[in-house]
Amino acid sequence: MSRRLNLVSKHLGQNLTENFKKSSLVTPYVQDPITFLHLDQLLPAEINSRRAQLRANLETNLAPFVAEWYEKAESPGILAEKFRSLGITGLSDEKYGCKKISLMEKSLILYELARIDCSLATFYVVMFSLTAHTIEELGTEEQKVKYLPKLCNLDMIGCWGLTEPDFGSDASALETTATPVKGGYVLNGVKRWIGNAILSDIMIIFARNITTNHVEGFIVNSKSNGVSVENIQRKLALRIVQNGNIFLKDVFVPANERLGKGHTFATGANEILEHSRMNIAWLAAGLIAGIYENSIKYIRERVQFRAPLASFQLNQEKLVRILAIYQAVFLMGWRVTNLLKQGKANVAQASLVKGWCTLVGREAAKLGRELMGGNGILIDNYVMKALVDMEVIYTYEGTYDICALIAGRAATGVTAFKPGYKA
């Protein structure tokens, strides 16, 4: 959009997207919201240093391409190569030829990626918080040796298939089936909204074993007979991520590709979701950081009524609300990450943090959009892109409502998921 506007404006002798009248403000200001309450001091010095290095690399190697990729709604072939060059891939332990990425460092990687673009962070979540983490936690030793080195080096792309057309929030009721046969299982069903599906080499597919009635996980070769993928078109958010529908028709999966552990929904898929939901709070924090940084730069530079927008009381109040939301979201993400590291976190805590952080993240995004006025709708100005992306993370990995009910169950001791209505 910005290139089209520039092309038109050149005929008028102007550059409408860049050369608006700028103020001459030179006063010091808080550029990075993490410094306001010195939250960076909560982070181990070595990890914080690597975070700063990653930010610089992202600004140079990925940020310049985001607007074009987002506008075209494409996941470019060079994405894996660029991620590989950043040196941010790994596992929770240094094994299988993969370097160690601690929970806190992974969280901050996601934070910095989302600050540039939430699609990039989502790609990382699918690869390492879902696909690789599932194999690391639930896979057999044979499966770990076979898949983890390739996933860590991005020589192999993975996707994670749980949700279905008729089962999103009620994922444990999924209808995809796994029928035991000689030498393995036959899978039938459909999965929907699966990130990286069309790019994937392997799929983690959760299906109901028709013998035990339990939900189990399977590693499926994306090129197996009976597997087909349809890319979901016309998305208005997370446009760099490719989401797909996966169709499984009599797909044979060898017995040794059934995940070695987690042969129920509670001990399998739900355990992975506990980990990944905690990650989503960091996506919200990264988006809010980007919203704040772009907004404050804009209102300091933009002149209206012969004064910079930053000099108006209403604008300062909106910016401070964004700043306050950021502090709370960062602190909640930091706390639940440390609890998970100590082995003290549970799915209720992860759900509370994920749900609330994305809820208030929506407010921050709307405020940033208001501060930029009409210019806020441009991809290059970040805030509108952040607003629609925040709407998605508010929903995925457990909607706000489901996350609230999980936390509510823990708080009250009463389950409230199912209404009393009977068909």
Automatic annotation (TrEMBL):
Cofactor(s) the record lists: FAD
Q: Name one GO biological process term.
A: fatty acid beta-oxidation
Q: Which InterPro entries match?
A: ACX4-like (IPR045008), Acyl-CoA_DH_CS (IPR006089), Acyl-CoA_Oxase/DH_mid-dom (IPR006091), Acyl-CoA_Oxase/DH_mid-dom_sf (IPR046373), AcylCo_DH-like_C (IPR036250), AcylCo_DH/oxidase_C (IPR009075), AcylCoA_DH/ox_N (IPR013786), AcylCoA_DH/ox_N_sf (IPR037069)
For this UniProt entry, which segments traverse the membrane?
none
For the Acyl-CoA oxidase/dehydrogenase middle domain, which residue ranges apply?
159-251
Q: Which UniProt keywords apply?
A: FAD, Flavoprotein, Oxidoreductase
**This protein's superkingdom?**
Eukaryota
Pfam families of this UniProt entry? Acyl-CoA_dh_1 (PF00441), Acyl-CoA_dh_M (PF02770), Acyl-CoA_dh_N (PF02771)
Q: Which Gene3D superfamilies match?
A: Acyl-CoA dehydrogenase/oxidase, N-terminal domain, Butyryl-CoA Dehydrogenase, subunit A, domain 2, Butyryl-CoA Dehydrogenase, subunit A, domain 3
Molecular functions (GO terms): acyl-CoA dehydrogenase activity; flavin adenine dinucleotide binding
Residue span, Acyl-CoA dehydrogenase/oxidase N-terminal domain: 50-153
**Gene Ontology cellular-component terms listed:** peroxisome
Query: By its UniProt entry, which SUPFAM superfamilies does this protein fall under?
Result: Acyl-CoA dehydrogenase C-terminal domain-like, Acyl-CoA dehydrogenase NM domain-like
Specify the Acyl-CoA dehydrogenase/oxidase C-terminal domain's residue ranges: 269-410
As for family, the record states: Belongs to the acyl-CoA dehydrogenase family.
Q: What is this protein called?
A: Acyl-CoA oxidase
